[in-house]
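Problem statement: downstream parser choked on a complex file, so we are re-checking the raw output for the zinc ion run. The parser issue turned out to be on our end (a line-ending mismatch), but while we're here, posting the original submission so the record is complete.
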Amino acid sequence: MDKKLLKELEEKLEKQKEELEKHLSRFASKDQEMKGDWDTKYPKMAPGATGSQALEEAADEVEAYSNMLPVEHNMELRLKDVELALGKMKKGNYGICENCKKEMDEERLKVYPEARFCLDCDKKK
Ligand SMILES: [Zn+2]
């Protein structure tokens, strides 16, 4: 692969990684023991809060929390792919499809730099 393009994609991935980590840290705390795993902060009821209003607020928070889970999960998966792609760049095997081991299309990598599979293999999944 062209070195200039590789550098370009690396910068793109670094930026994506930063963005994803920023988003994730907004509603999740990074798990200290399991690297790369993120725990969503479970909403807690305000201390000393009583009565139906407090309960309602807590219920709203729980709802927001469960709405957020798929988003968080999705971001976590993307972050893993981005980190994986950056790791491959360091090892020098970036851009190779994990399934058929063929070089991936550069146009595909430009729009989807964290791709792990070529378009053909992705379709077969
Ligand atoms: Zn493939």
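For whoever reads this later: The helical segments are 3-27, 51-91, 106-111, 119-124.
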